[in-house]
Specification:
two-stranded parallel ribbon; 3 domains; 232 residues; 3-stranded antiparallel beta sheet; elongated; disordered N terminus; alpha+beta; disordered C terminus; 7 helices; Arc Repressor Mutant, subunit A
């Protein structure tokens, strides 16, 4: 692999050691400062923290799969290890919660926010599994995502749009779905509507800009707006 390259845009954490690794504020701070590959010495100089302490936590992040070796350099008789993040951003898979994970089948109201959250969690869990299977076979996973923002003048317009959207999805499904085809592959379509976060403080927390314990670990490059991937 080319030095300095990041394996993937988004990494999914589902193993206990991976989730535990990002609970430490210091380790999240280290990840925040690994936009580019760096060593324990470089991070110590940047953050004002002893190199031995940083090296210990980098080892923990490496064993958890959040960082990996980028290169090694000989300096003054010592080997300096440079590490990089294995992904630009991370999300935690609901699979980590086991039986506590949200299950859309247990939510009766299909129009509730609870159902949307459960469906979104299922997407994260299922796509993470499918990505691993595709990677094991050195294949690329076929996915498509759609995002748009619009404004409704009234609740009636919202309801009408939802009904028309559902009708169009069902029409397209009837047109293209071919269960009888020999080489057919099954896909799941999920679409949802929710209000846009507009309060500045809510946006900051949502993006992980604050320093609270619950902030998200993310490193999204500027201009990264990819919503559609055509694979395999």
């Amino acid at each position: 692999m080319m030095q300095g390259a990041v394996n993937q845009a988004v990494g999914v954490l589902k193993a206990p050691e991976g989730v535990a690794a990002v609970l430490s504020p210091l380790r999240r701070r280290l990840l925040d400062n690994l936009e580019n590959p760096d060593s324990a010495t470089g991070l110590a100089r940047k953050l004002g923290i002893p190199r031995q302490k940083i090296n210990y936590h980098l080892r923990k992040l490496e064993s958890a799969g959040l960082v990996e070796l980028d290169k090694e350099e000989n300096r003054r008789g010592c080997v300096e290890r440079y590490v990089r993040m294995t992904a630009r951003a991370f999300v935690i898979s609901p699979a980590f919660l086991g039986g506590l994970a949200a299950d859309p089948e247990l939510v009766r109201d299909r129009y509730s926010s609870a159902y949307m959250v459960a469906m979104a969690a299922q997407v994260v869990r299922d796509v993470a599994v499918l990505r691993e299977r595709a990677a094991d076979h050195q294949q690329r996973l076929a996915t498509a995502a759609l995002e748009a923002q619009l404004s409704f003048a009234s609740p009636a317009d919202f309801a009408s749009f939802s009904e028309e959207l559902a009708a169009d999805v069902l029409r397209l499904a009837a047109k293209y779905s071919r269960d009888d085809a020999t080489e057919s592959r099954r896909f799941r379509v999920f679409a949802g509507l929710h209000p846009v976060i507009t309060k500045k403080e809510d946006i900051a927390q949502h993006r992980g800009d604050d320093s609270a314990e619950t902030r998200a670990v993310r490193k999204t490059p500027a201009g990264h707006t990819t919503n559609r991937k055509k694979r395999r």
